[in-house]
């Protein structure tokens, strides 16, 4: 009687598919995973992700064929609780955390996930970025409360830069039965910019150099800029050297736009100067502001998911241009939940100087309720 | 298990309590009086107490609040489902007939399936009769808005009534109205009154105090009295309903029309094949998503292959202001009963047009000819035509939907010429022409279709439609029922038509939309796209026009490419005629090659307002479909090309980063300027600019008086304005005054607003805020998609409740069609996300107090949960104090217990009911248990108590060797350290396994054991829940036997049916208890202890006497006869002597007694005498004394 499930091809968007499958209870089959590749099948980090998903759920069945090119996932119930996981250093913790953010509120018991591995790398949003942008987005949807946090306490939190890793992050998330519909249509003006310039296993001067150069660009717009320098030593500094910058712009209405930039990992590509990094990161933030919207580009899919899972009411959110990842996510949402978004492009007025086109996404939620939660 | 009858409550008839009560009853409410009479009693005695009462009152008040929910009722609600229930022969059909007659002035002889009528300007009703089958009762209770519960007053309540009430209670409580019938059976007025009252009060306790109960006093010519029916009708039409949780969170349809669409050829070859069936009905509850999963109670779970909405067969009248409906608007729609137009039999179509209906039916239904033509061609076509025409008219609002079917064909021309201005070419004559035209149109895309072109299109379209229609008519005339596919195959020659269709589809935005819903997913998207375009063009927003044209041009290019390809391949030609197939074909072609374009165009379109919607939802289709394009070499080998862009994308890096646009150079000043206003330092909008706000504030608060100096400061702006006014000419003065007035009004309004926010909102409670928020959300929900046409609207929010929809389900079992009985409701219940899965459910369950037996674990039970009815095997358990779920063998009598089942995933908080069998009618109450779902979990932790028993075989001091509990050393090893106990309560522990005998172990106890002791180990063994989920397929049973579904039998039933008697274990039998007398060893007290004991506690057992020596033994004397005589005599003498002595003693005794009495008497007399003497003496002495005294006082006494 179980529903027939969906079939996809290729390893791209694996997380989206598995996460949506777990939320919707639909079986998913992914074929031809790197079938034409020299090394066919799932990579280690993907297998690691599946293992994490298995830890979070109860009663899910995962079938992988011998070459690893076909994956069949029959989701179980989201269980949550205390989970410890060693993430594969091929991808950063952000890769895993993005999925956890989506699943966290719909568990049976509040989630407390301890993830170990690479906290910051180039490919995925870093932990700092997610902490400063994803959590506020979720709070807008009523997912809030005590212990909703990605822990950044220096006493036992440590950074691990790209190749080596060795960082640790604790993500705690309360459980919600339903998600509130939202109307996030007016981003408001940016009132302040905050940031963290971090450096591990390099000279502590790096942080200051980054800050200096980033401020140089951003001060043209706003005086209220404060960038913390975060230098970690000893056990907290992970296994590899590196440095980076995360910038977050906060608007009057409490929305966050962010950008980040990291040094190239040790032994991969040309090294980057901290000044260049600061400047480039500031430009990235400007680009993000140019795109605008109420949710920044890396959290678009999270916001859209929470809209989809809301009550059967109209939710609206103003986004910048949709990223390819988000576009695929929208398609997946339609496959899994039969929800289509109304997409309206808002063009800026002639004399307005507020960046590029915005996209107003509107949808009616599916009326999802957390079926894992126990009734007492 | 026979139940003990509980002792009934006995009311007091006499005594103080009864009198008090009587007094109370007589006086009625004396409260006010008391307050006046005794004000002190009601005065404030204690502030704390006062606070407590206040809190309590507030608590009660707050408790009355319902949690506010967003009002999601649609503007045009679906007809209200009125379920008429009652035992057989109570007058259900008669009541429905009367009500229908009352509302529509029409007589409906056969009530068969749901009957929908228009009862008022805002209200439609669907009547459904519930037959006396528990399956129907359960199903209908779930969809009912209002229940008319018929009760035969001459008989009283019957079990069915109570059963139905209990079913209702479990599945959300719809409104229930009781109707008493057969009141004319009472001859005696008093008994009538009494019965009415009794029944009313019983009804009230079941429903709620004051529930409405109607009385239908008697029949007139086989109908109920007009006035009474009218009153009932009035009540129904003003009734308000509250939302029920399950109904408002799930879409559902009560099917009122069913058609079998299966290919007759397939039917002929395989009569048992799965059927494709379309079901029609009003959508209720909430939005229905296409392609969702549904459950049909009594049949099973199905995937909807298609949904589309149709024109309302029973539309509400227009909104003109008048009080009553006219005759035309009193519509009646009951296809299953054969009213309202067409009835479909297995392979024939009956059109019922009674004389008195003709006029109305023409309004509602299309003409027979057209109906037949449409139906006979193919039903998808029918639906499509209907749908597409609706969308044709959406532009020209205010048209009566009833006209649509009739005038559709004619109207198309009008529509073509006027509404749709940017049309593209449509050519129907031949392939070459079409290709030319398409390419032509793509070349001159900027020019928005000249009038000439439009004209051309019109003609082509009309010819095409005519052709279609001709063919369909031809089909109708054919002797065999026309089959779509077969027919198509016959028409091989007509390739123009096929070729035309793609072009047609390509150009016709609106018609595509019509088709959209009936096609696959890709089709839906495609249609939606075009709908979006046209909507925007209607809005005439210049900005978006460009984007649309771009898209359309792109689309056209692709279309052109496709038609080229089609020419080359030429393999789709044979037999594609209908819209559906053509458009499928077309989409396949359309899809190809768009992917690359779309992805390439993505970044380019970022600036140029792309039709994002198309980009997002349009290109999925090719990703799925444009796969295998591999070339073959000699039909054997395939060329394995390096992966194309799509494949690369499929295996690309999974990353949510959005790379920045490289074209933006943030060194440049203009780029920086382009985001200046995003910061607080940038320029603000008119309304929020600091300068404007300041000015406003000045206007409001500019005037003030300095209290110290008494100087009045005036706002500068006002003065300036006045000055300006003075300066200006007289002619413009009037205008200025107007402006001033407006300004003043504005100012006033703002002041008032400020006041309101300051004072009113402070008072608003959390509840009010919440309510307001919900209200806002509801308004937003309504407004968001309001101005959209239905076709595109359904894509975003799904099908709205209130729409008349048609569902197509492709694989229904054939029994559903062959054994269809319209008297049984066909309900299509939508399932939420993951409600289609099966898993473990934990529930709280209580045996119904009216059910006569307790329920046994592992006995199959039929549950009604959510939409479903299914049989499953529950395990009952109870939670121990430490959170352990202990398995129970039976449900407790009057208590809740837990139940775990394997069944469909249903949200927590959903109620369910259980019955043991659904077949037949039993004498007793059938609802065995009720409860609620608590938890869904994939793993369950129910344990049952298991006692392992062993026997000691060697006892040392406190150590003991025990055997028989385990079988191997390994088993013992697993239980090392476990605590064990004897039956007599001596506790111990398992220590270590012994080598022989296998399974024996050494254990220590707190005391020495006896060989006769039994040792046991208490353990908890996890129990697995049997995975039985057996949906009740009662609708698939043959007509007349639908109430005879029987599933898995219980063990007890099986044994009974097969005549198997249980052979019990001999140990379990009851036997007379024979207890061997127990021999106790004597108590041994050590000598030392004995010595120390006090004599009292010393054992008194003397030494047994030893043998008496011979010399000490006395020899026995044997008397001589003489001696014996002497002894005899002596004995006799002594006896006499004794007797004499005794008598003498007795006499002496009596004498002595007498003597004593005498003595006493004498004594007494003596005492008396002495007393008297003493008295006399004392008196004399006293006198003497007196005399002496007197003389001493007087001096010397004189001589006498």
From TrEMBL, chain A:
Its main location: nucleus. Transmembrane segments: none annotated. One of its GO terms (biological process) is endonucleolytic cleavage of tricistronic rRNA transcript (SSU-rRNA, 5.8S rRNA, LSU-rRNA). This is RNA 3'-terminal phosphate cyclase-like protein. The keyword Nucleus applies. Residues 185-289 form the RNA 3'-terminal phosphate cyclase insert domain. PANTHER family: RNA 3' TERMINAL PHOSPHATE CYCLASE, RNA 3'-TERMINAL PHOSPHATE CYCLASE-LIKE PROTEIN. PROSITE patterns: RTC (PS01287). Keywords: Nucleus, Ribosome biogenesis. It is found in: Nucleus, Nucleolus. Gene3D superfamilies: RNA 3'-terminal phosphate cyclase domain, RNA 3'-terminal phosphate cyclase, insert domain. Residues 7-343 form the RNA 3'-terminal phosphate cyclase domain.
Automatic annotation (TrEMBL), chain B:
Residues 1-41, 430-571, 1178-1200 are annotated as: Disordered. GO terms for cellular component: 90S preribosome; nucleoplasm; small-subunit processome. Residues 1-25 have a biased composition (Basic residues). SMART domains: AARP2CN, DUF663. It catalyses: GTP + H2O = GDP + phosphate + H(+). Its main location: nucleus. Residues 431-461, 506-522, 537-568 have a biased composition (Acidic residues). CDD domains: BMS1. Keywords: ATP-binding, Coiled coil, GTP-binding, Hydrolase, Nucleotide-binding, Nucleus, Phosphoprotein, Ribosome biogenesis. InterPro entries: AARP2CN (IPR012948), Bms1/Tsr1 (IPR039761), Bms1_N (IPR037875), BMS1_TSR1_C (IPR007034), G_Bms1/Tsr1_dom (IPR030387), P-loop_NTPase (IPR027417). One of its GO terms (molecular function) is GTPase activity. Residues 734-791 form a coiled coil. Transmembrane segments: none annotated. This is Bms1-type G domain-containing protein. It comes from Astatotilapia calliptera (Eastern happy). The lineage of its organism: Eukaryota, Metazoa, Chordata, Craniata, Vertebrata.
